[in-house]
C-alpha cells in the first residue's frame, strides 16, 4: 500500500515521515519515532496507557491513525520535563505522592492529567476522578494518583500566582 | 492489532467527499472520530479499501441556533457539545447524554454525526435524537435530503443512509422553554455502553403533562421511540398509575438480546427502571 507523507510537531519538534495509512499513532510514536513512553496496554481503547496530547486534546493513540495526526501538535510524556531535566509538576507529584507502583499506566495518567489541569486548574477530587476515568491503573487503587494530581495542581497554581505578583 | 490495508483520502469539501464516495463505491467509508470504526477495523470486522476522512471539511463543524432549530454539524465532537453555551441554554439533555458516553478521551474525538450514523443500537445519541424528534441532513452526489431520526434506523447497523451519502448535520427542534428532561443510563462502569437507557422530554401546563416524548437505548435492534408510552403520560398528573402505564407500554416494545449486559427480561426490566427515574427527574425539572 502506498505510503502517505505526514508532517507534525512532536514535543516541539517538527517531524516529517512516511507512513502506511493503517499505521496507528501509538506504533508511529513508539516504533518510528522511538518514543516509547506512551504504552500499549489493551489496544482496544479502554485502558488509556497510550494517551498522548494532540491539538490540546487527550487522545488514546491506539485508536488514532498516524495520518489523522498530520498537521497536528502532539505532546508525549517525553515532552513534559524541562530541557534541563527538571521534572514537570505532575511528574514530581506522582513521585512525591507515590502515584505509581509498576508505572505502566503512568505516562497515560500524566498526559491525561496534564490536559485536565489545563482545562480545570483547580479540580475537586471528584472532578479528578471523572477526569481520569478513561485511564485504568491495576496497582495503586487510584488514591495516590488523585493525591499526585492535586499536588501538581497546587504547585502549578502557586507558580501562576507568584508569576502574577 | 492494526487494521488491514486501505487507502486514505482527506477531502476539504462535502462535494469532494461525496464525489470520492461515489467513485470508490461500497469499499469506501467515511471516517469521523474513528472511535467506532477503527476498533472494528482493528478486529478486522470491517474490511475496507478506502477511508474518506471528514476532518478537514469545515462545513461539517459548528453549532448554530437557527431560530427554534439547533443545527449541529456532523463533525461536532461530544466534548464540543459539552462545552457549548448554546446547547447548555437551549437543549441541556444533549449535554446530560454526552457526559454519559464513554470517557474523556473518547469524547474529545467521537462526533455526533458518527454516533448517530454508526447504526449501533448501543450508541446513546440515536435514542436521544428520536426523543427530541431531530432530523438528519444527508448529502449525496445527487443532492440533499432530510430523514427523521425516528425513521432512520432499520436494524442493527442498517440505516436509511445510502451508499455514497454522508450525514452533514443534525437538526434538533429546540424544546419549549421550561421543559423537563432527563437521560437515565444504566451501565456497569464508566466507558460502558448502556445495559438500558431512557430519554424523556416533557412539558407541564397547570400541573398536568402537556406533552411527552420517550425513547429507549440498547434494548432492541434499533433505538426505540416509544410513541404509546409517551401518549400515556399526556393529560395525566404524572401520577403513579400513568407512569406505571408508560413503563408497561415501553417495556412491550423492547427486545434486548441476552448478552454480557444481562438476560432479556432483566434488560427490559432495567429499561423500565431507567424510564421511571427519567420521568421523575424530568417532572421535577419541569415543575422546578
Ligand atoms: C471505549 C469506548 C466506549 C464507548 N462508549 C460509548 C457509549 O457509552 N455510548 C456511545 O454512544 N458511544 C460509545 N462509544 C462510541 C463512540 O461514541 C464513537 O465515537 C461513536 O460511536 C462514533 O463516532 P465517531 O465520530 O468516532 O465515528 P467513526 O467511528 O469515525 O464512524 C462510525 C461509523 O459512522 C460512519 N460515519 C461517521 N460519520 C459519518 C458521517 N458524517 N456521514 C456518514 N457516515 C458517517 C462511519 O463510516 C462508520 O461506519 C464508545 C467508544 C469507545 C472506544
Ligand atoms: S492501549 Fe490504547 S487505550 Fe489501552
Ligand atoms: S502503577 Fe501499575 S498500572 Fe498503574
The helical percent of chain A reads 25-40%
CATH architecture of the largest domain in chain B: 2-Layer Sandwich
Strand content of chain A: 15-25%
What distance lies between the first and last C-alpha atoms of chain B, to the nearest angstrom?
Answer: 51 Å
Task: Give the biggest sheet of chain B.
Answer: 5 strands, antiparallel
Helix content of chain B: 25-40%
Strand order of the largest sheet of chain B: 4-5-10-6-7
Determine the CATH superfamily of the largest domain in chain A: [2Fe-2S]-binding domain
Low-confidence stretches of chain B: none
- Uncertain runs of chain A with pLDDT below 50, 5 residues or more? none
How many DSSP helices of chain B?
12
Gross morphology of chain B is globular
Structural class given helices, strands, pairing of chain B?
Answer: alpha+beta
Q: Which CATH architecture of the largest domain in chain A is right? A: Orthogonal Bundle
Number of helices of chain A: 5
**What is the CATH C-level name of the largest domain in chain A?**
Mainly Alpha
Mean pLDDT of chain B: 97
Terminus-to-terminus distance of chain A: 57 Å
Q: What is the gyration radius of chain A calculated from CA atoms?
A: 16 Å
The CATH topology annotation of the largest domain in chain B reads as Uridine Diphospho-n-acetylenolpyruvylglucosamine Reductase, domain 3
